[in-house]
Amino acid sequence: MAVGKFSPSTMYPTFDFHTTAEDVATAFAEQIQRKNILITGTSLNGLGFETARAVAKYANLVIITGYNKERLGLAHAELRKEGSHAEIRPLVIDLASLKDVRRAAAEVNAYAEPIHVLVNNAAAAVGAFKLSPEGYENQLATDHLGPFLFTALIAPKLLAARTETFTPRVVFVSSLGHEYGSVNFETLGKPDPALYDSMGAYRQAKTANILTASELSRRAKGALKSYSLHPG
């Protein structure tokens, strides 16, 4: 089928390998309108930035985040230069630091607007063993523990967006890498550098994303929808 065309059997658009972010945003423009969307990890030219750029053409408010204020400023300037319909609001947050996650969540909870969609996209680069400020393995802290806490803390903002016709969404950007790993509960609280495997740590974090998305949907009981996805 052609990209973005509607399937007669489902009445939903169908996409393929060649579909762009703009194609998807255009197909769902009516649903994106008047929405406030928060996307973590929006450095220039990354997945988060491209998502923000696409939805900003139709949304009411797009909140972009990053741990580096200067790089976040570059992304902010680029999005504004494109003349987006949405207000673009930067939010500095270091997801590896639970303390900073709490600070940023408090900032979001002080916003006047509700949050309709949260996209947990930010992730640490796969690399050498490193501990987060609170002593967790850094990949797990950045890719999962920080987003997990952030989601929980701003849940009131998400639930405030619920109406009779709209259910708020939480999206975790995961990976098919979870198929080759699991969660080692024995080392979560006591990471051992001697046992560290960078790709194993990545897969563990992505598995945790998927498990959390599934459980969040179950516990929300329809109050919000939670998804995990493989970006391709």
Automatic annotation (TrEMBL):
Keyword Oxidoreductase included in the entry's annotation: yes
Keyword Isomerase: no
InterPro entries: NAD(P)-bd_dom_sf (IPR036291), SDR_fam (IPR002347)
Gene3D superfamilies: NAD(P)-binding Rossmann-like Domain (3.40.50.720)
SUPFAM superfamilies hit by this protein: NAD(P)-binding Rossmann-fold domains
Record-linked Pfam families: adh_short
Keywords: Oxidoreductase
Superkingdom assignment: Eukaryota
One MF annotation (Gene Ontology) recorded for this entry: oxidoreductase activity
Similarity field: Belongs to the short-chain dehydrogenases/reductases (SDR) family.
Protein name: Short-chain dehydrogenase
Species in which this protein is naturally found: Mycena citricolor
Lineage of producing organism: Eukaryota, Fungi, Dikarya, Basidiomycota, Agaricomycotina
